[in-house]
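Hi, here's the filled form for the chain we discussed.

Project: internal
Contact: R.S.
Residues: 332
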Amino acid sequence: MPLIRRHALCLALAALSLATAGSSAFAQAKLKVAAIYTVPVEQQWVSRIDKALKAAVARGEIEYVFSENVSNADYERVMRGYAEGGQGLIVGEAFAVEAAARKVAKDYPKVSFLLGSSGKPQAPNFGVFDNFIQEPAYLSGMVAGGMTKSNKIGMVGGFPIPEVNRLMNAFMAGAKETNPKVEFMVSFINSWFDPPKAKEAAFAMIDKGADVMYAERFGVSDAAKEKGKLAIGNVINTQDKYPDTVVSSALWNMEPLIDLTIKSVKAGKFEAKEYGEYSMMKHKGSELAPLGTFEKKIPADVVAKMEARQKAILAGQFVVKVDDSQPKPTAK
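And the returned structure, exactly as it came back:
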């Protein structure tokens, strides 16, 4: 082979090698993701975000850091720190810090923000989501209605805001379907994480005759366990910790939305829009937890009705109403 041709071939191979290496490096590049939580990371709501992000870490798709127990006053500073630090995606909840979070997003248009919010998206980079898990909440209510013997159900929530109200209202509607006689006690502790306060509120309801508790907050299931009553969980499945207490739970799965967001950010196609629909059962964003230890303890006719409703929801034949109004107690 002539020298000039060998030289050209070597140059071509070198160029191909560099191109391949560059392409491989690009393909292997990990998106830097940061999350900001105003509560401990083990709290129900944010733990679901954390779980989905850690799954992406395990797949080698992202680098992930987070800050927990961030006060409202400090939220903007922490968010700016992450934006300045080269994070490509910032996730969190902005319910109490809407103005500050949106201000930061506006100042960093090249960073994608995906935040739990009751507000609207903000172009070009502020997407919003919420836990629209009213469908499994309705199904869990059907189970609760079939399990109460006193016909009194106690409900302890964090704050009476849309994110909580819609789940409680759906639960109540489901319970009414299987048990029209059921009455409800409703209380809010005005905190997202105060297990002792939630526990005391649950004790008060149990003392008034509630034999099934809707555990929207941590602490309620503990009260039910101590008093020998039943509980229905919310957002996460805690039956493994309360095998004789927690009958079932409405589960929230953040994986569908987190995975979609990571993919879109990497492709440069992230959109500032409302992503709440990805919490619904049709997207596998929510589900009723397996009945587990209570599978044989729930009346067969109740299970049959619940499973029929579940099929109807997934088939689009039954729509669970989204009612964000504050639920009212009906028990005397």
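Let me know if anything looks off before we file it.
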